[in-house]
Amino acid sequence: MTGAMMMLVALALDSAIGWPNPVFRVIGHPVSWFGRLIGALDRWINLDGADEGARRIAGVVAAAVVIGAAAEIAWVLTWLVPGDWPGVVLTGVLAWPLVAVRSLHDHVRAVALPLAGGDLAAARRAVSMIVGRDPEQLDREGVARATLESLAENTSDAIVAPVFWGVIFGLPGIAAYKAINTLDSMIGHRTPRHNAFGWASARIDDVANLIPARLTGLLLALVSTRPRAALATMWRDARRHRSPNAGWPEAALAGALEVRLSGPRVYHDRIADEPWLNEGAPDPQPADIARALRLFRFVVLGLALLLAALSVV
Questions:
Q1: Is the dihedral of CA 113, 238, 153, 306 positive or negative?
Q2: Angstrom distance (rounded) from CA 301 to CA 10
Q3: Which residues of 149-181 are buried (b: 16+ CB within 10 A; e: fewer)?
Q4: Helices (H), 18-100
Q5: Domain spans of the chain?
Q6: Structure letter (DSSP) for residue 195
Q7: Is-above-0.70 flag for pTM?
Q8: CA 10 to CA 6: how far, in whole Å?
């Protein structure tokens, strides 16, 4: 399967070196390109004073433009490269920035190290890079919990889902997925400005992550030392999460580590009274982040082996 070979190349490159800063400084990153287009559409067609119906239609147009542009450009690039194995390698290089193995690992590790060393202030600064809640309201256990939740959800959004759609639809599939995910992260929020405008983007993202989120939960459970407990926790608690998808990897990770996740949390402007996942278990500690990163690396290795097997087939 050429899609599997392409994603194996992309996964290997990103795991080894990530997206180099010198390259980012020169050309940026596809997500930042998507972000500029989304921001422009938000300014141009999400008009102040428009009613909810008009904003919703504008949001559908914005989602179609961004996703269509990403898929079309990727299709043209695929059409331009040769069809033999050098072409597969080249498309893998093009897909490389659309997975985020090294970035996610390094961001989580940047929280784990100061937290383990007792530097709560530095850990709060680091966790603010990966979560939306107010870091100043987080104690040591709160920082650890937020970090584990972000790791679980982003293992799906940043790695498993891009790989999944890349295998099925090639470079256009992973490009379209990354556009969908960026749309959701930028405008898929229940705020006065984006509640209607981002409605379509949020719903499309829910559908795009439906299978990958559950696959991620399964992978996290299977690579753990407590697969039965992790699977049982996932099956029991995943649907309690406010998101139709994020609860699956988060509940699996909670069961695998024997900790509780989710629960009440403070965002900058509100308190979210969320139910617990794996309620009754203790709060996570700094050492649990290191354990979770080890599971994360096993998930990536398992994906690589699966892609290699699909490539041979």
A1: positive
A2: 13
A3: bbbbbbbbbbbbbbbbbbbebbbbbbbbbbbbb
A4: 21-27, 30-45, 52-80, 85-95
A5: 2-312
A6: T
A7: yes
A8: 6
